[in-house]
Amino acid sequence: MGKRVNLTGIAVLVFFLLLGVLISIRLTGLGSHFPNPIGGTMQRVLSPIEQPILQLGNGIKENFRAIWNFREVQVQNEALLKKVDQLTGDNLKLKEEVLAGMRYNELDQGQFRSPTLAKFEKVGASVINRNPTTWYRTLTLNRGSMDGVAPNDPVIGDLGLVGKIVSVSPTTSEVLLILDGEGQVSALVRGSTGNSTFGIVQGNYTRGSRLTSEGNLQMLFRREDGVNPGDLVLTSGIGGVYPKDIPIGQVKEIQLDPSGLLKTAYIQPLINFDALEEAYIVKQAGGK
Amino acid sequence: MRYVLIAGMFLLSLILPGTLFHFWSWSGIKPDLLMLLTIYIAMHHRLLGSAIWGLGAGLFEDFYLGRNVGMYTLTLVVVAILSNWLAERWYRENFLLTTFMVFLVTAVGQILVSFLSLGAGLHWSLSDIGRLVIGVSLYNAILVPLTYPWIHQSFVRGWLRYRPRYER
Q1: Gap between the Cα atoms of A151 and B67, Å rounded
Q2: Which residue among B23, B113, B114 sits closest to A58, beta carbon to beta carbon?
Q3: B137/chain A closest Cα distance in angstroms
Q4: Which of A148, B89, B108, B165 is the most buried (most CB within 10 A)?
Q5: CB B16, CB B31: distance < 8 Å
Q6: What's the average pLDDT block by block, 10 residues per block, for chain A (288 residues)?
Q7: Does some domain include residue A14?
Q8: Would you say A149 and A122 are in contact if contact means Cβ atoms under 8 Å apart?
Q9: What are the φ/ψ torsions at residue A282 (nearest 5 degrees)?
Q10: Cα–Cα distance between A285 and A241 in angstroms, integer?
Q11: Where are the alpha helices (DSSP H) in chain B?
Q12: Residue A221, domain member (yes or no)
């Protein structure tokens, strides 16, 4: 006589196990602050290994770039040779462009040294890992709760805003990039005339461009709002997470909605997220 | 030795997608190495053993990522059971079949992850989910010819071979 299998019992057990897993997934979602000592220990052990591997990958990419993109490099080379000829014969224009570039850098640095940012303590951190799964746009930094980093602390790069901390282990922290659609930033667009227009910057990594490596940002405006390509986008300081006046990007393109009532501004981030190696974490006294 | 090797491979599977494969990603798509490893392990174990390895790998990944605990646990258990079920029916040493199986099982696993993510509040369009599921599955399938021969040999004759207690 074989053992009798209690199918109802198994079904009930499976149902409750599934229910438990679903509740656990929901309760420990992005931004929740559940204690994770096992994960913390794993991050602490693995973080010294991750950085050399990331550097190795970067080195391989840099060294093999010309081979992978041979045709592209060749085309670029031809285009550059033509450009050199053109620029050699147009010295004045070159000087003007250099001066304009210098002014732009000064503007950027001026915005970056915002008085609202200066009052916070900042801690420098290196990128040791980048979005381990494809589902979110995140970075792992080599600073954690032992350095005073807390969830919701803003993270800034050399030219502007990178994102905010979403989870912290004793020695590492995870940054949700502003490119990810899950992270929104209250922002203002400063036009050439000095007037400001408020809005929400949202990463469109959840939308059509999710699968591009660059990602992009966008803002919605009313049709009559005076926003133009080239305008600078800065944090507004409203919302309690990001300090005021941190540069986010520059309006690249504006498209009118089919309804004609709204328009979408596409924003080119100032930060090159793929090349980001160091960042500052702005400590906001335990986050808000 | 076997368990140390598997633990090492688990660790590498967690670290490499975010580091080395970040530079070899296609339009942001990277392979899911832990899922690939779970499939390989499940193909070389019995049903219960596969499920337990899947459970361990899933918990490992969930705690490493530190969010949505249970998502990868559930997914990798399902992936392990499905892989084992398919491996029992399909000839394990046929690399083409194995490649197709990895593609199929990864797709099922990624679909499960996407639906659990949607349940956890992630906002994604169906077309993006489709592209991502197919992309990750293809990437995993492409890695099969490069990785499976070594892993399979090791499971059958090498260091990853299970040795009963009386044989040790």
Answers
A1: 13
A2: B23
A3: 12
A4: B108
A5: no
A6: 74 87 82 79 82 81 73 86 79 63 53 64 83 78 89 85 89 88 84 80 63 65 84 85 85 84 86 80 65
A7: no
A8: no
A9: -90, 115
A10: 11
A11: 2-15, 33-43, 47-65, 71-89, 95-119, 126-156
A12: yes
Cβ contacts of residue A222 below 8 Å, gap of 6+?
A261, A262, A263
Q: What are chain B's domains?
A: 2-18+30-162 (1.10.1760)
**What integer is the mean pLDDT of B13-25?**
82
Strand, coil or helix: what is B165? helix
Chain A environment of B29 (Cβ under 8 Å): 134, 211
Residue A161 CB partners (closer than 8 Å, separation 6+): A154, A155, A178, A185, A235, A242, A246, A247, A248, A271
Total-model pTM: 0.67
Please indicate if any CB of chain A lies within 8 Å of the CB of B132. Answer: yes
Find the distance separating the first CA and the last CA of chain A, reported in whole Å: 65
Lowest mean pLDDT across A102-111, A122-131, B133-142, B145-154: A102-111
* Any domain includes A17: no
Query: Any residues with CB less than 8 A from the CB of B94 and at least 6 apart, and which?
Result: none
Contact B14 A56 (CB under 8 A): no
Q: Is A208 domain-assigned?
A: yes
Tracing tokens 């033509």 back to the chain, one arrives at: A82
Q: How many structural domains does chain A have?
A: 1
Please tell me which residue of chain B has the smallest CA distance to A18: B74
d(C-alpha A134, C-alpha B136), whole Å: 9
Nearest chain B Cα distance for residue A168, angstroms: 9
Residues of the domain holding A243: 35-288
Kindly provide the residue ranges of all beta strands, DSSP E only, lying in A89-137, ordered along the sequence: 121-130
Residue A211 to residue B132, Cβ atoms within 8 A: yes
